[in-house]
Write a structure and sequence with these properties.
Two copies of one chain form a homodimer. Chain A is an alpha/beta fold. Chain A is 45% helix and 19% strand. The first copy, chain A, contains 14 helices and 13 strands. Chain A has a seven-stranded mixed β-sheet. In chain A, β10 and β11 (338-339) form a beta hairpin. In chain A, α4 (90-102) crosses α5 (117-129), α7 (187-204) runs parallel beside α11 (276-293) and α8 packs antiparallel against α9 (224-244). Chains A and B meet through α4, α5, β7, β8 and β10 of A and α4, α5, β7, β8 and β10 of B.
Chain lengths: 380, 380
């Protein structure tokens, strides 16, 4: 990759404005991207209270990197939450709203999320509902959050009955995706993030798919020269889809490829044991199985299957097919008209399917759980 | 008023669609308005789960009136909350989300709010965040909710530190404002609702102001022939303002006339003792006092003052000026740049003012609290 591509500035237009997304190597160092952009960000913060939502873990590793950015705000108020999905509760959101109100938060205050997907989801929800919505900025610190969760305005917390069941669409004004932050991630976390990249690439960007296949080892080794162009390309795909369909009524749902079963796996496991991206990987494998039944060409299925096989993913715990099916049929991707699946028709082409019956899915799922990593043999 | 004006259909266009607002006598009886409109509403409900959020009080008085409307839904799930501001809590919202999820609520389910402003605010918030937003319908049962709270997409719950501090903009698809529902309201509730009408009329519709002055006794006596055109006209004013400024960045803030002190009165009283509209009446009186200092012509001030004097409003409890000022400066209408007041410049013209210092407001407030019902004598 060339030096010019080290930092990429993209823009996502949405119904209420635009998100400026800056990604690449050293984004958080003010000198690394254009003076114009940095000034614009400084203007956004000037005279404001800046709330920073972060976890102890990320703060210890990278907190110092925020210093130059925060200098532009009038004052900074730190809000600390626990790592992981557990922080995404209504109670946690309520505590944060109370803290922000008590600290003198106003309608024109700003919020910055500094963490992975959980912190971004929670922070976006908190920003979206505080005083009916304050502007916010995402600084995603995981690969998954940089390429997916931080882009597109989806915010959420969880209920006992399901993940991301409470939330709203509230786009950040800024996303700063600094690939330097990814260098401290474990290989398993990078692998989980790559699942979302692969999901998008397979249906929406075959050039990106080829790049991931080519650079997989460098990506898993957190080499920023390999990561930066992949992050930028994945952001570009996501922006394109979100702009066409900001509130997920149509093509944006392609991004849910692998998520129907993926969410159920997470839910039935109680959101422990598998990372989100890892659960989605199994969801992709199961979707491939369903797609093969509906005519997905075998070479296309094999290409995705082989790439997923190269990722260091944990084994799937033993699970009850019926519990998974029950969970899926309660899922928010279910409508009154039935459960929606995103299935590939071919490389670069998805389709939404809602006519798969419960019994059929249950039977396929039982077979899948016996041997999730094998592609089923062609049936005649 | 003529027979044709008994039911009025209006439309509010907003960034994410439109709200159809049907107001007047007998709206909830399917035969009272156009077959086309009724069919369209039936389509909106067909095949859906309809959640109905209501209070025991309103349900006992008017629950049967919903029957013909609900018949179009596939199934109805009732959700009951307590009357009043107390129900507008994050905890209550969380309980409702859990109940809706457990009852099988989906992204394409519908919610209907059946009650006053509190139920509408809470229900709008619950609908706005359930599975990132489901469509909803407001059936406001108080004058205040029909002319103000149900129109414009503001939703909210309260935190201990302030009213309406958590919420979002989420417009209903439908508002059905049936003036028959107002006939069981006590005179004091009608009076409180008229305060919001007067507030809008004074700055934005002088014809409506004259109508309220003329018909005041009939309005306070809940005569539907008097109420229907006032409700329709007030809705028209609110729609016009909201369409020009959907997220309250400019002229929509004129609707906050009387609310800067009004909210503080409610807050310092712990949301008991004064109805919202009653608190706003005192807020208007105080705003008149500030406006006179800044050149509001005395005849204009006297006109509003005289009309407010004709309303049966309770006396203002004894209150500490300093506590009120503290509350206002923490209010969500405060920005980092200062507290914003909406003051009349003349009949039909408001202005936003943010350069009133704390000390000045405190001094004026002390004088006001000694005798809220007198207009201060001209100063030289």
């Amino acid at each position: 990759m060339d030096a010019a591509a080290q930092v990429v500035v993209q823009e996502l237009a949405h119904p209420r404005g635009r998100t400026r997304i800056v990604s690449g190597i050293g984004v958080l160092s003010a000198t690394s991207w254009s003076a114009e952009g940095a000034n614009s960000l400084a203007d956004w913060l000037a005279g404001r209270t800046l709330f920073i939502l972060k976890t102890p873990h990320v703060d210890a590793l990278h907190g110092a990197r925020l210093a130059s950015l925060c200098g532009a705000a009038q004052r900074v108020v730190e809000l600390v939450v626990a790592d992981g999905e557990g922080a995404k509760s209504v109670r946690q959101a309520e505590q944060l709203w109370n803290a922000m109100l008590t600290a003198g938060g106003k309608r024109d205050s700003r919020l910055l999320t500094f963490g992975g997907g959980s912190v971004g989801d929670l922070g976006g929800f908190v920003a979206g509902c505080f005083l009916r919505g304050i502007p916010y900025l995402q600084v995603p610190t995981t690969l998954l959050a940089q390429v997916d969760a931080a882009i597109g305005g989806k915010t959420a917390v969880d209920l006992p009955g399901g993940k991301n069941t409470v939330g709203l669409f509230h786009h950040p004004d800024w996303v700063l995706a600094d690939t330097d932050l990814l260098t401290t991630l474990p290989r398993s976390e990078l692998s989980a993030g790559l699942v979302e990249v692969i999901k998008m690439a397979f249906l929406l960007d075959l050039e990106l798919l080829a790049r991931v296949e080519r650079d997989l080892e460098a990506l898993l080794a957190a080499e920023v020269q390999a990561l930066a162009p992949v992050v930028a390309a994945a952001i570009a795909v996501k922006c394109r889809v979100v702009m066409l369909d900001p509130e997920e009524r149509d093509q944006r749902r392609w991004l849910n490829f692998g998520h129907t079963l993926g969410h159920a796996l997470e839910g039935v496991l109680g959101y422990t044991g598998l990372r989100h991206g890892e659960a989605v990987a199994y969801g992709l494998l199961f979707a491939l199985r369903l797609a093969l039944l509906r005519g997905l060409p075998r070479p296309a299925a094999e290409r995705l299957h082989q790439l997923l096989c190269r990722l260091p993913l944990p084994a799937l715990p033993e699970l009850d097919a019926l519990a998974l099916v029950d969970f899926m049929w309660r899922d928010k991707k279910a409508t009154e008209q039935g459960l929606v699946w995103v299935l590939p028709q071919d490389l670069g082409r998805g389709v939404m399917v809602n006519d798969l019956g419960r019994e059929q899915v249950l039977a396929e799922l039982r077979a899948f759980l016996l041997d999730p990593w094998s592609l089923p043999a062609p049936r005649t």
